[in-house]
Amino acid sequence: MALLEVNNLEVCFGLRKGEVKALRNIDFKIERGERIGIVGESGAGKSVLGFSIINLISQPGYVSQGEVMFEGQNLAKMNHQQLRSIRGNRISMIFQDPMMTLNPVLTIGDQMVECLMEHRTISKQDARNIAVQKLQQVYIPSPETRLDQYPHELSGGMRQRVVIAIGLLMDPDIIIADEPTTALDVTIQAEIMELMLELCERNNVALILITHDLGVVSQVTQRTFVMYAGRIIEQGPTKEIINDAQHPYTQGLINALPQMGVRGKRLHQIRGAMPSLQSVPVGCAFRERCDYAIENCSHNVPDFTESGGCKVACHMVAELKREEQAVKLEIKGGAQ
């Protein structure tokens, strides 16, 4: 049994103009110690998916369909009290802005000790000792001194390390990291991601990394899910997706990376913009931005097709696979 299994998950937001589906037909599994990446443009539904896993969707949002199974328990059906034993304990979440996680009027030590004593029956001194150990794990110098400091006294990179240490406090089985390096400079970004990779490998912790940066995904994750307009449109081993992307949208994301550009020329960009979730077009949501759209794209939502070691939701790819199969059968028939 997988550590976490998401089945046919749908999330809706009730607005005055009617319901809006933010997530549609999300299916995936993650094993213990596995690292997956969820990528896509802003508005694709990445963060909503992260919040949905631990049932943190606020009204007017709600899980309208599907299940999130964690070791046989459906998190989507749990009440607030039941979820308190899971959130921050078995499943931790790291947010993109550390100041949204850290309380500015409490010291780092107070916040870490409070978290430990909420979930474990230990003394305050034992909790403080564990907090020091976790700060040491994330390579924060003079951890005993840092415990008595307030968040504003630390640099951005140091605050993010503290947030990661808090995420590791309860020795979780899964860490959900939502754009954990967005507010940091490039050098600190690399350090933080190397740190997270090291900690996950050392402690056999599963990681769900939510990001728009394919470069980060390629360095840290083993499998990748590409999202567009609330759906997963391509999934597979990260190396396969980076080296041989099958979906036109994923190809566009990779071609838009600065290192893929030609010196002196404009960077590649995908034309147009992602549709509003209130007006997702019929058929393939990406068709109006796609250079390879065919007639079927205007009428039907594409199913997954296996191609190049990945699963791709694209009518064009499915058509090419059918043509390839037909040619193989023709050659085989001729040989006989």
Q: Could you walk me through the main structural features you see in this protein, from its secondary elements to its overall organization?
A:
- With 336 residues, this protein is of the alpha/beta class.
- It contains twelve helices and twelve strands.
- Helices cover 36% and strands 23% of the residues.
- The strands form two sheets. The chain has an eight-stranded mixed beta sheet with strand order 6-7-8-3-9-10-12-11, with helices on both faces.
- β11 and β12 form a beta hairpin.
- α7 packs parallel to α8.
- The longest helix is centred in the C-terminal third of the chain and has 21 residues.
- The radius of gyration is 22 Å and the shape is globular.
- The model has no long low-confidence stretch (mean pLDDT 89).
- One of its GO terms (biological process) is transmembrane transport.
- It is an enzyme of class 7 (translocase).
- Its EC number is 7.4.2.9.
